[in-house]
C-alpha cells in the first residue's frame, strides 16, 4: 500500500490540482458568458 501511494501519490496530487484549476476556469468562463449574455439581452 505504501509503495502504491509512493508510486501514484504525485499523480493523485496533480490530479487534484488540475481538478481545482478546471473548476476555477469553468466558473470564470461561465460567469463571463453569463454577464455577456445579460449585456446582450
Characterise this structure.
This protein has one domain (1-41). Helices cover 95% and strands 0% of the residues. It has 1 helix and no strands. It has one helix at 2-40. The model has no long low-confidence stretch (mean pLDDT 83).
**Class of secondary structure makeup:** mainly alpha
How many domains make up the coordinates? 1
SSE order in H/E notation? H
Strand content: under 5%
Distance between the amino and carboxyl termini: 56 Å
Low-confidence stretches: none
Round the Cα radius of gyration to an integer and report it.
18 Å
Biggest pleated sheet? none
Q: What do the pLDDT scores average to?
A: 83
* Basic shape: rod-shaped
Give me the number of helical elements.
1
Query: Helicity level, as a percent range?
Result: over 70%
Question: How many DSSP E strands?
Answer: 0
Short description:
With 41 residues, this protein is mainly alpha-helical. It has one helix at residues 2-40. The radius of gyration is 18 Å and the shape is rod-shaped.
Structural features:
mainly alpha; 95% helix; single chain
Amino acid at each position: 500500500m505504501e509503495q502504491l501511494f509512493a508510486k501514484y501519490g504525485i499523480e493523485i496530487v496533480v490530479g487534484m490540482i488540475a481538478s481545482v484549476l478546471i473548476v476555477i476556469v469553468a466558473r470564470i468562463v461561465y460567469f463571463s458568458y453569463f454577464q455577456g449574455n445579460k449585456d446582450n439581452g
